[in-house]
Design a protein that fits this description.
Helices cover 63% and strands 3% of the residues. With 234 residues, it is mainly α.
Length: 234
């Protein structure tokens, strides 16, 4: 009988990496790229408001400084709403990327382990919520992936996605403790007390640079995955 092993052949690795690269390229171009000119859009919106107020018949010969102030406030509100939309869109894109990686990983492990073990049991264990069990298998079989420099970003991504989906809970507490940089609170630059800066799910945010770093970590998982891993001797 063939020794139990986990085998990632080169063709499948290339397919997984190519799909990841395509997703990233298209997401940045078709989705996140729409937020590249928010300041210009807010300025145009402010100018349109100013012109609309000034052209109103009922405005007459009113003080245009009042119109300018109102236009500025509307532009600022527009920019803030765009910023919030960008934050939520970025988190949604990251969640989609992670879910695809998660499904690819679980599917791969199920197919590999089913060659040597009971399929029903393998399926049950590969698709249980706690993905850490699969990391344990990889480490027991010879790949210390938790020591990889990119692993903390993979771990952070899982928590970010859970907080984005569920809000408060254990994932929020873990993310706040281990990766507080993903919470951008409204009082960060005001010198407020720590009780005002306590991480909250509503302040969860991932910058474009952080998005790229996490995406690179998910990609590196497949790039570094050993070609063959063998079940340790009992």
């Amino acid at each position: 009988m063939m020794e139990p092993q986990i085998y990632l052949w080169s063709g499948e690795r290339e397919l997984l990496l190519a799909r990841h690269d395509f997703y990233m390229e298209q997401t940045k171009a078709r989705v996140l790229g729409n937020f590249n000119n928010m300041e210009e859009e807010a300025n145009r919106f402010s100018e349109e408001v100013y012109e609309r107020i000034g052209s109103m018949p009922s405005y007459g010969d009113g003080d245009m400084s009042v119109a300018a102030e109102a236009a500025f406030e509307h532009g600022a509100d527009f920019y803030m709403m765009l910023s919030d939309l960008k934050t939520q869109t970025t988190l949604g894109a990251l969640a989609s990327l992670f879910h695809q990686w998660d499904k690819d990983f679980r599917d791969f492990m199920e197919r590999q382990l089913a060659h040597s073990f009971d399929r029903a049991e393998v399926e049950r264990n590969c698709w249980q919520p706690n993905i850490g069990k699969l990391f344990d298998v990889l480490e027991e079989w010879g790949w210390p992936l938790r020591q990889a420099p990119w692993f903390p970003l993979v771990s952070a991504c899982r928590l970010i996605v859970n907080v984005h989906k569920h809000g408060k809970g254990r994932s929020l507490d873990e993310l706040a403790q281990d990766y507080p940089q993903y919470f951008k609170g409204p009082f960060d630059n005001l010198g407020a007390g720590s009780w005002l800066k306590a991480p909250d799910h509503e302040n969860l945010s991932v910058s474009e640079a952080e998005f790229d770093q996490i995406a690179d970590a998910l990609r590196q998982f497949w790039a570094d995955f050993p070609e063959r891993l063998f079940m340790p001797n009992p």
